[in-house]
Design the sequence.
């Protein structure tokens, strides 16, 4: 065990040496902080996106029926399928959804064509204006995020088109929805028929939202439908969130690899700084050993320096990472029209800081060990 | 009678520099008793510093035994040696060698922190006491860079005494000081030797320093002589051949001395070189005088 007094001395020496070499210390800190910040920001945004994906839907919807043919949102089903699904005894309600990316006043946005059945299932409380009603021609209800993003107010007119070179159609915003913290906040809701017309997909829908009479009937319902219609996927919203999660996880591992590389570079920075520090103070090491310092004492002194650097770098990095995530969550939606929330939780802050200290320990060990093994007689002669 | 503080038994230290072997210590035997105030004098390269580092457990001898305070340290591990250095030996160096980032007080505390025996307040108390002893209590919070050379050396002496060692080793303690300050530092050591009874071994090439110690050992070519008259080539002369040889050697010595004086007159030298040259001349003169006595 290293006595407390040695640690205290090590801290004292470390801080005074930082004070003597502010610029070098700052550079090392920066190296570590950048690596940690990258990791924190990436994880924060990725978690936020994953959490948000379908959290609201899973509360209200039991199943979502989509086509096996393509990805979750783009696949198309015939509208008449809704009637057939409604015939199942287990089904309480079933509503079609056509999900489509459109241009609202020239901005890329997500539109959902729904019916009153659908609205009842996914019911989203209204913040202001009037609620959605089937057959309301030329009217839309928008999610809170989208309203913020496009600065829409109740009563305002917008032009919606399938592509930027089509004239499209003018709609009036009749209602703005309460924020739910989920994916529904970024949508614009309109009558199914209207959307089908705008995007030229008459009689087509993307999915069917299903509410069962009794959630316990889920298994048998899923089995029956999938047996009857081989090309349909009957999934619970949680499953979708899992799928989204998988994609995000993959994205995450790519981003994490980038973060790890920057962290590795930070580690090399610590190693380099510690090595320089050892070489510079080799005479000091010799003196300390001559007056009775043990190997472990010298090791402690230099390792402490490396670990303080990495600890402080980790803290700065964590703070920087959260700021970075916040900035990203404001900038990315403007670029891709999709909200990118970020999430901050204790493990996201303390994990990377611990990682950073560990990194400092590993990176600092070799040079410190070299220093600890300096032979005093050689070190003192060192001029 | 108590154990000698330092005992060397036929210690040799050989450095290998490339293909050449340098015999820095050549079968040196030595006993230093507690409370002695001893100097080791010799020209540069005579092996003084090697002698000091062997006694100070900073270097291991190639052969022979080293006993510190009655304990054989020859075969000790690096960790055990650092323990010996910590508790039994205090070092004073030519270049003061204080830790630049620590204050005078913290420098004196450092060996006690490494020793890990006293509490924080005991350490602080003792460090202040030691600074008082060397007359630098008012400079306790100054960094080495804010102290003069003499003050730094006094802090170093206080540091050397921190763990109450049996032995203080000083390697050219006045080498980097002007003669007045150097003399003060030696006076301080004398005083500490008298008052605390600590054993001091001072390595120097300054005859003025050596004069101040109670006992002087002479180091020539890796050999240690207590009695300068025993330095070889002063050996008893038995035959005519011996006398002839001695006379021719004397002649050589005188020639060498003359050339050295010539060199000193003509060549530009730095202070340190000049000092060495003067020392060499002095030792040459002494050798010649002894030789003449013999003849």
Sequence:
């Amino acid at each position: 065990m290293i006595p407390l007094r040695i640690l205290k001395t090590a801290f004292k020496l470390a801080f005074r040496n930082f004070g003597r070499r502010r610029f070098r210390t700052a550079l090392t800190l920066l190296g570590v902080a950048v690596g940690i910040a990258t990791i924190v920001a990436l994880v924060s945004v990725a978690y936020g996106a994953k959490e948000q994906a379908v959290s609201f839907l899973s509360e209200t919807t039991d199943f979502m029926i989509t086509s096996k043919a393509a990805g979750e949102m783009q696949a198309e089903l015939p509208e008449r399928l809704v009637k057939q699904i409604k015939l199942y005894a287990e089904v309480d309600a079933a509503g079609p959804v056509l999900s489509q990316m459109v241009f609202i006043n020239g901005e890329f946005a997500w539109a959902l064509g729904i019916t009153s059945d659908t609205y009842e299932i996914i019911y989203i409380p209204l913040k202001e204006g009037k609620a959605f009603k089937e057959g309301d021609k030329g009217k839309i209800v928008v999610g809170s995020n989208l309203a913020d993003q496009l600065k829409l107010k109740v009563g305002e007119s917008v032009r919606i088109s399938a592509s930027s070179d089509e004239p499209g159609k003018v709609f009036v915003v009749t209602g703005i929805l309460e924020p739910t913290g989920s994916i529904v906040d970024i949508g614009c809701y309109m009558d199914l028929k209207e959307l089908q017309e705008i995007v030229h997909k008459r009689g087509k829908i993307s999915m069917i939202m299903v509410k069962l009479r009794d959630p316990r009937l889920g298994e048998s319902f899923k089995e029956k439908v999938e047996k009857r219609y081989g090309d349909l996927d009957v999934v619970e919203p949680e499953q979708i969130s899992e799928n989204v999660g998988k994609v995000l996880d993959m994205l995450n591992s790519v981003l994490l690899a980038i973060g790890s590389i920057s962290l590795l570079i930070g580690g090399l920075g610590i190693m380099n700084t510690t090595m320089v520090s050892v070489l510079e103070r080799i005479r000091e090491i010799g003196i300390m050993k001559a007056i009775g310092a043990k190997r472990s004492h010298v090791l402690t002194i230099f390792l402490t320096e490396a670990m303080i650097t990495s600890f402080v770098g980790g803290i700065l990095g964590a703070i920087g990472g959260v700021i970075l995530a916040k900035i990203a969550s404001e900038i990315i939606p403007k670029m891709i029209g999709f909200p990118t929330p970020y999430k901050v939780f204790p493990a996201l802050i303390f994990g990377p800081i611990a990682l950073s200290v560990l990194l400092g320990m590993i990176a600092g060990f070799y040079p410190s060990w070299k220093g600890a093994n300096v032979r005093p007689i050689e070190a003192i002669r060192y001029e | 009678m108590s154990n000698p503080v330092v005992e060397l038994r036929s210690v040799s230290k050989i450095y290998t520099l490339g293909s050449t072997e340098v015999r820095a210590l050549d079968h040196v035997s030595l006993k230093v008793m507690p409370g002695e105030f001893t100097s080791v004098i010799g020209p540069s390269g005579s092996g003084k510093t090697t002698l000091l580092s062997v006694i100070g457990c900073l270097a291991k001898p190639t052969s022979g035994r080293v006993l510190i305070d009655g304990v054989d340290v020859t075969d000790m591990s690096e960790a055990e040696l650092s323990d010996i250095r910590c508790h039994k030996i205090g070092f004073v160096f030519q270049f003061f060698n204080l830790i630049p980032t620590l204050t005078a007080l913290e420098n004196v505390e450092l060996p006690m922190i490494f020793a890990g025996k006293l509490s924080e307040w005991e350490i602080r108390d003792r460090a202040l006491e030691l600074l008082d002893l060397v007359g630098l209590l008012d400079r306790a919070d100054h960094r080495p860079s804010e102290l003069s050379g003499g003050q730094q050396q006094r802090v170093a002496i206080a540091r050397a005494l921190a763990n109450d060692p049996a032995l203080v080793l000083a390697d050219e303690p006045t080498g980097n000081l002007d003669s007045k300050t150097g003399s003060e530092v030696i006076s301080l050591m004398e005083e500490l030797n008298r008052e605390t009874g600590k054993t001091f071994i001072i390595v120097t090439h300054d005859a003025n320093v050596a004069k101040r110690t109670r006992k002087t050992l002479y180091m020539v070519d890796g050999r240690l002589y207590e009695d300068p008259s025993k330095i070889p080539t002063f050996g008893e002369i038995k035959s005519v051949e011996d006398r002839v040889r001695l006379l021719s050697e004397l002649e050589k010595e005188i020639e060498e001395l003359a050339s050295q004086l010539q060199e000193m007159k003509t060549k530009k030298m730095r202070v340190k070189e000049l000092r060495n040259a003067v020392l060499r001349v002095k030792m040459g003169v002494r050798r010649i005088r002894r030789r003449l006595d013999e003849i």
